[in-house]
Amino acid sequence: MAVYSINNNCLAVKVNSFGAELISLLTSDGTELLWQASKDIWPRFAPVLFPIVGRLKNNSYAYNESNYVLSQHGFARDKEFVLIEQSNSCLKFELTADEASLELFPFHFSLIIAYTLKDNTLDVSYKIFNPDNKELLFSIGAHPGFSTKRFKEENINDYYLEIDGLSHLTAERLQEGLISGSTYNIDLDKGVLPLSVALFNNDALVFKNNQINSIRLKSKKSKD
Predict the structure, then answer these.
(1) Which residues, 6+ apart, have CB-to-CB distance to 41 below 8 Å?
(2) What percentage of residues in the chain have a pLDDT greater than 70?
(3) Residue 158 contacts by C-beta under 8 Å, 6 or more apart in sequence?
(4) 99 sits in which H/E element
(5) Where residue 224 falls among pLDDT bands split at 50, 70, 90?
């Protein structure tokens, strides 16, 4: 386990090789944009979700007449990645299948995650290679936690999501952490969704069918 850094005049980035997890995203004025892990609330920063996103019923699945156990969001977030490329502006990590992963997920793979700085933007890319001659079945996702206390006396109610100028979103209703099959609408005001603790009373917000093309987290107390 090691922490690697890249920076420029706008941003300073730190990534842990364990999970290839982004652990700090610091602006030039010293503002931390990323949630800083807390054991009492959420002990992660920005885990990588692979080879599944979300939860399986009973944490298990069947493939080719065999049963496998796979916990929520998969195992990549708890694996040591290998740093395969480093420059002043880029960090690139790789995870490949091993004996332990094959017991949970019967596929060979190479997962490469690259963090690249360009001006005031951090680009994160994911590439999955299939070295086998059979189909590789997987999901991959990002789970970054962003700070909603960037400025003095801020809280979650000062923040909102800016989503494509949409009028509403159709969300999946979850039951015991699983998609239930029913949906409900979330109304937006010219693409704006105010954040609050109550918004997540019924678990995470899940949107299917590529409803969102871009999303911005903004604060009422900031011009950014």
Answers:
(1) none
(2) 99
(3) 148, 219, 220, 221
(4) helix 99-104
(5) low
Q: For 35, which DSSP code?
A: P
Q: Torsion angle, CA of 98/101/106/107, rounded to 10 degrees?
A: -60
C-alpha pair distances (Å), 126 with each of 51, 102, 112, 178: 12, 21, 6, 25
- Model-wide pTM > 0.90: yes
The span from the CA of 181 to the CA of 175, in Å, is 9
Q: Which run of H or of E encompasses 43?
A: none
Q: What are phi and psi of 102, to 5 degrees?
A: -65, -25
Distance CA(180)–CA(188), nearest Å, equals 23
End-to-end CA distance of the chain: 34
Calculate the average pLDDT of the chain: 94
Spatial distance between the Cα atoms of 145 and 122, rounded to a whole number of angstroms: 15
DSSP conformational letter for 50: B
Residue pLDDT, tens place only, 69-104: 999 999 999 999 999 999 999 999 999 999 999 999
* Neighbour count for residue 135 (Cβ, 10 Å): 8
Three-state DSSP class for residue 77: helix
**CA 211 to the chain's CA centroid:** 18
Q: Give the strands of the sheet with 216-219, arranged side by side.
A: 192-194, 159-162, 216-219
Has residue 113 got a pLDDT over 90? yes
